[in-house]
Amino acid sequence: MTGRLRESLRRLRLPAVPLLWLLAFFGLPFLVVVKISLSDPATALPPYTPVLDWDAGLAGWADVLAALDFENYRTLVADPLYLEAGLTSLAVALGATGLLVLVGYPIAYAMARAPKAWQPLLVALMVIPFWTSFLIRVYAWIAILKGDGLLNQALMALGLISKPVEILNTPAAVMIGVVYAYLPFMVLPLYAVLERLDRGLVEAARDLGASRLSAFRTVTLPLSLPGLVAGALLCVIPITGEFIIPDLLGGPDTLMLGRVLWSEFFSNRDWPLASAVAVVLLVIVAGPVVLFREAESRRLERP
Amino acid sequence: MSRAHPLAWAALGLGMVFLYGPILLLVVYSFNASRLVTVWAGFSTRWYAGLLDNGPLVESALVTLKVALASAGLATMLGTLAALALDGRRRFPGRPLLTGLVYAPMVMPEVITGLSLLLLFVGLGIPRGFWTIVIAHATFTLCFVAVVVQARLRHLDRSLLEAAADLGAAPVTVFRTVTLPLIAPAVIAGFLLAFTLSMDDLVIASFVSGPGATTLPMRLYSQVRLGVTPEINAISTLLIGAVSLAVLGASVLTARRGR
Amino acid sequence: MTTPAPPPATGRLRFEAISKRFDTHLAVDGVDLDLAPGAVFCLLGPSGCGKSTLLRLTAGFEEPSAGRILLDGQDLAGVPPHRRPVNMMFQSYALFPHRDVARNVAYGLEREALSRSEIAARVAEMLRLVQLEALSTRRPDQLSGGQRQRVALARALAKRPRVLLLDEPLGALDRALREETQAELRALQRRLGTTFVVVTHDPAEAMVLADRIGVMAAGRLVQVGPAAELYERPATRYVAGLLGDVNLIEGRLGEGGAGTLRSLDTPLGPLRAFDHHGAGAAGAPGLLALRPERLTLGSEGLPGTLLDATYLGEKILYRVGMADGRVLRASGAPGAGFSAGAPVHLAFAPEAASLLPAEPA
Hints:
CATH class of the largest domain in chain A: Mainly Alpha
Order of helices and strands of chain B: HHHHHHHHHHH
Order of helices and strands of chain A: HHEEHHHHHHHHHHHH
Strand order of the largest sheet of chain A: 1-2
Strand content of chain B: under 5%
CATH topology of the largest domain in chain A: MetI-like fold
Shape of chain A: flat
Subcellular location (chain B): Cell membrane
CATH topology of chain B: MetI-like fold
Membrane topology (chain B): Multi-pass membrane protein
Largest interface: A-B, 99 and 94 residues
Number of domains of chain A: 2
Radius of gyration of chain A: 25 Å
Number of strands of chain A: 2
CATH superfamily of chain B: MetI-like
Protein name (chain B): Inner membrane ABC transporter permease protein YdcV
Largest sheet of chain B: none
Shape of chain B: globular
Family (chain B): Belongs to the binding-protein-dependent transport system permease family. CysTW subfamily.
Organism (chain B): Methylobacterium frigidaeris
Structural class of chain B: mainly alpha
CATH architecture of the largest domain in chain A: Orthogonal Bundle
CATH architecture of chain B: Orthogonal Bundle
Structural class of chain A: mainly alpha
Helix content of chain A: over 70%
Distance between the termini of chain B: 28 Å
Largest sheet of chain A: 2 strands, antiparallel
Oligomer: heterotrimer
CATH superfamily of the largest domain in chain A: MetI-like
CATH class of chain B: Mainly Alpha
């Protein structure tokens, strides 16, 4: 028994540090969020009650537990604003991810079929935006989309419209921004799968009587599904909680959960309500996160 | 033979225009003489000259660099450890937990990570400032380091490690003399990735920073909210230039190594 | 189509002046070839000689830069791969990893307007043919190399192609399995009567499988014929060396031409040999090719010294040092008692030796 315990401890030598770090700074904070989401706001520092008093012992814990309630969640359910924000988040995340698949798949496919010598360059071109500041890239669209912006100027110069159309501060601007910012996240996992795909398989399908389209449908597409799933999850989860893009490009009516959380926290200083929004957001993305984790660890741990 | 369909090529071309067009426009307009950002009024570098006199801006740039260096260093150590722990068939209690904790922060919405860390720091009574940003950044970037290093470890020829052990190297020596040199490119790449992610972060830093620790993205954000200005274009251009040079340099280096 | 021959009436493949250029590289250079229906033809040559390109041109993955490919008289130009009545067995096997054995075999049939039951029946028949009935629900990654090879074969045969193209069909198998599989493949082809075109770099494999062999080098077809003809009457030094051990003696050609016995003036004196293909004009440099088993050790012929004798079971290999310092190899039945260092004489029948042009190699 002690032998087995010692063996376990020996095996934990390597993982112990990262495991403890992530538990302390990623796992534990979620519990804190859940606790605060059950607290009441207060004009104090910290701006919520009850505050756990470390010196009060077990009785203090009991008092805290007794003071917790679901008031914030009731607020969330009662106010249609929050329901709408939740639905908008989901709609934007799912819609944009669908759009990303449509835009990203042909790009990834062309990259994978490009001459071998070009491929490192094409990958680098996909990766560079990813290394470039997210904030700056989203900001760059403001000058393009605003009323007297370059897109409107171009459209008017072409005679397609007679007076500027409102694009900035609309859901359309948010969609454009999201597709733009997340495109590499969709393209790169797809490219990774398509590039490794044995071209002989498509040739075999063609040889066995499949047209280009049916070879794609029966061979390429099913075999690229893992990349498609990875890319979609890599996009849909963070987009659901996206803050910067709806904040800079969206109008007052494109309320998304990330933005609501931000304003509850920074503008209204209602930490407990912000925490409740975080918990709701977490519940929404929990399923996809678990799926992503499974997919990634399976992909990486395959021999 | 199985070349891509012309439509796929068109998509690739348009995709590149889509990705780079906005950035290029931003760069071009940073050299615009006019303050009106959408009207071209001749070439000028006046906005760049003005940047150096902007004291708070330079200061927050320095803060950002320091945070990025410290957090990337920490993340590289933790992430490499995590990758080594998760490598191969190594079994230990809590393995599924560690796997989950490594992949989840990659996709977790930043507002959640930021808020939850802030509440933790407040709850524990840790004063907010430089070090809380470092801890927060190390936490979410270590996952990216772990994934990059893990990918490299998977392609490592096991027989090299066995050969070293066979020639009398103790496990620690095997790691120092064989494993580490072989995974070094991935470790460096992981460091650079963590560094850029930290430099780039607005949301998490906004939550966990305190007085006196305003990062460049935070300062940029407060200005961006007020509208498009040539100064922001100029800073952005400098940042984009620095990153492009770094990525190009790194890819040239790895290409030469691969040959 | 034209001749009412007994089965198979189809599967006649003709190459007419076929060339294929990739950028600046001429992969296939003016190949003319007429393949008999129902036979096994082997394209033999080193990697990069153009044999695989010829196969891919036939399958339709490449279009020829010049020339025509005719299948039973029909020009295949412009016919996409999926409309060609030929099927290919890929070198890597190219088994679909997301489909099990039965669904791999069914793939080609599903592209046709066949009913479910027809497909099932044909798949079962194919799996029986390659003895894989028991493994029909396995995935490719759960199969051994030999089993994968048989799945690939069954899949390519399922559509009953007029010509089956096999790209290094046994290249991924280990030696023992390869020999066993060669025999199986040969027997299967006999039973089906389908035209087989096999690409291989292994001369032994070509000799076992083929009715006729075409030797390729640098994009050109060097010599075509049955294995015995290529072995006994090689047209070039390359073909001579490819199919087995050979002694080469250089010299100047005497009078004569193709189809005659000619003399060759060599450092070992004038030697007589048969010129099958036209080795060159009188006075031109030539080569005499002689298989070791055609050289006999005795008391007559060219004088030399026995350097050593190696016992190889079914035969003994002798190395004999000649007057000018060269070493010739001869082989004979075990039992003859020659000892190393003894003076010996080498003799051969002129008809057993071939005259070749000195160049090209």
